[in-house]
Specification:
The chain is α+β, with helices and mostly antiparallel strands and 94 residues long. The chain is 26% helix and 22% strand. The chain has helices spanning 21-27, 74-83, 87-93; strands at residues 2-4, 13-15, 31-33, 36-38, 59-63, 68-71. Bound molecules: zinc ion.
Length: 94
């Protein structure tokens, strides 16, 4: 699980354990029931890249600035990081 801590620039990538995913999602204002994740309008949260419905188990990355949650498909995570220009930083840390 990755969690960039700055809105405009990732200065830190916080990696946290899967057991904490639900708490992080709830702290960000999402509603979790039976492992399914809902936004503040009561709609199922979907990965903006592949459209898959987000669950606690398939959450791959959380981006607080935009409140974007992507699924655990590596392509989706990389696509988002690429879009916001952070792949170079990741390259250095992998
Ligand atoms: Zn996805």
């Amino acid at each position: 699980m990755i969690f960039p801590t700055k809105e405009k620039k990732i200065e830190h990538l916080v990696v946290f354990e899967d057991e904490k995913t639900q708490k992080v999602l709830e702290d960000m204002g999402f509603y979790v029931e039976d492992g399914k994740v809902y936004n503040d309008r009561g709609e199922r949260l979907k990965c903006p890249y592949c459209g898959k419905e987000i669950t606690v188990d398939n959450t791959g990355g959380i981006f607080p600035g935009s409140k974007i949650v992507v699924c655990d498909n590596t392509t989706c995570i990389l696509e988002h990081l690429d879009k916001v220009g952070y792949l170079q930083i990741l390259d250095e840390t992998l």
